[in-house]
Specification:
This protein is of the alpha/beta class. The strands form two sheets. It has a six-stranded mixed beta sheet, with helices on both faces. The protein has a four-stranded antiparallel beta sheet with strand order 2-1-4-5, with helices on one face. Strand 7, helix 7 and strand 8 form a beta-alpha-beta unit. The chain starts with 17 loop residues before the first strand and ends in a 22-residue tail after the last helix.
Length: about 270
């Protein structure tokens, strides 16, 4: 059965209500077009992943959604309202939180202080305390290290802190940029299992961009493949994981034929 290529869910016949809709998005770095007509949907309560190699445009996509970069063309609709071109703090207040690539914790501040910064838009102390307890319930190691400077945490603990800082806002959607970056396979598995629990138990909607296709597709409900700034493939995570192209070019499963064809001699079917 063929995969869907470059279609958002709503155009592929999926009737699930999208919390986040992106249509024909174009973003530039100076004269260079980094995002080329991207369209995708993130249904409420679901996990959607965007796969792609370095330079595919994944981080630029998240920065454009978050308001860090302005698109030249296209629409970003969140909960029925267009948000493209708005300031980042306005987008955060609507309930969109980005967990950046490389964690970006404040190294000289304690774990507790980093978490407090995640709740800077909140004024209700009881609500902030409740959010902190939620974070500690998913990341108990952070409760043990709450007075420790963030810069002295391990890489895995810093990633937990970055996710926890985002949760302090009680967001409607989390944008996660390469959460497995720099982590061991064991820590990656642990982080993604916590993300799965957050989705299943707390109903957290997530857009996850990743190079690690195996863990991303195992977590996600739906996936997109991004190359050179454009979406080249879209389908359910299960069907993407089973596709020959994804297995060969993203999961490293090279099925050599009778002639022993090498991976770099194969051509992707979406080109």
């Amino acid at each position: 059965m063929p995969l869907t290529t470059a279609k958002p869910l709503s155009e592929a016949g999926d009737q699930t209500q999208a919390l986040l809709e992106i249509r024909n998005l174009e973003t530039f770095y100076g004269p260079i077009m980094a995002i080329r007509g991207v369209s995708l949907d993130v249904p409420e309560g679901k996990v959607v992943t965007v796969l792609g190699a370095n330079g595919a445009g994944k981080t630029t996509l998240l920065k454009t959604i978050s308001g860090i970069m302005d698109p030249e063309k296209g629409r970003i609709v969140f909960d029925g309202h267009e948000i493209q071109g708005r300031e980042p703090h306005q987008i955060v207040r609507r309930g969109i939180v980005q967990v950046p690539e490389g964690r970006e914790v404040f190294p000289l501040l304690t774990v507790d202080e980093n978490l407090s910064l995640g709740a800077y838009t909140k004024s209700n102390r009881a609500e902030i305390a409740q959010a902190r307890e939620l974070v500690f319930s998913y990341f108990p190691i952070l409760a043990e290290r709450r007075q420790q400077e963030a810069g002295t945490l391990s890489g895995g603990q810093q990633q937990m802190l970055a996710i926890g800082r985002g949760l302090m806002l009680k967001p409607r959607i989390m944008l996660l940029d390469e959460p497995s970056l720099g982590l061991s396979p064991l820590l990656t598995q642990e982080i993604f299992e916590i993300l799965r629990r957050l989705n299943q138990e707390a109903g957290m909607t997530m857009l996850v961009v990743e190079q690690n296709a195996a863990v991303a597709l195992d977590l996600a409900n739906h996936g997109y493949v991004m190359e050179l700034g454009r979406i080249v493939m879209s389908d359910t995570a299960e069907r993407l994981a089973a596709s020959e192209d994804i297995q060969r070019f993203y999961l490293g499963h090279a099925n050599e034929g009778a002639r022993g064809e090498r991976r770099w001699k194969k051509r992707k079917t979406w080109r």
